[in-house]
Amino acid sequence: MAWIAVLLAGLLEIVWASSMKLSEGFTRPGPTIVTLVTMAASFFLLAWAMRSLPLGTAYMVWTGIGALGAFVVGVVTLGEPLGVLRVAAAALILAGIVLMKLGTPG
Taking the domains of the chain in order of start, what are their residue ranges? Predict the structure, then answer.
């Protein structure tokens, strides 16, 4: 269950990061509320998962999911550039997440 919580927390991190961008510096109420609610839920799930997962593993997987997801959202929906080096960096993050998960017992 802890891994499911980290996965959900990571997905919520993508939502709050994206809505934070859309909030235009917290000047738009709708995206600001989405940001704050999903941020709180993401932190809660991460904290819950950390009761049984190692700190470094849980935090790295959570931030990695958020970073990769935010990268994809930026490219797909916000028209951010997609270059070879950016894709290579994203692939390295993904490799780090996979290796960290495989290297953690339980």
Answer: 2-102
How far apart CA 4 and CA 58 sit, in angstroms, is 11
**Tokens 């993050």, residue?**
93
Q: Is the pTM of this model over 0.85?
A: yes
Residue among 89, 84, 40 nearest 64 (CA) = 89
Helix (H, G, I), strand (E, B), or coil: what is residue 25? coil
Average pLDDT score, the chain: 95
Integer-rounded Cα radius of gyration of the chain:
15
The span from the CA of 64 to the CA of 70, in Å, is: 10
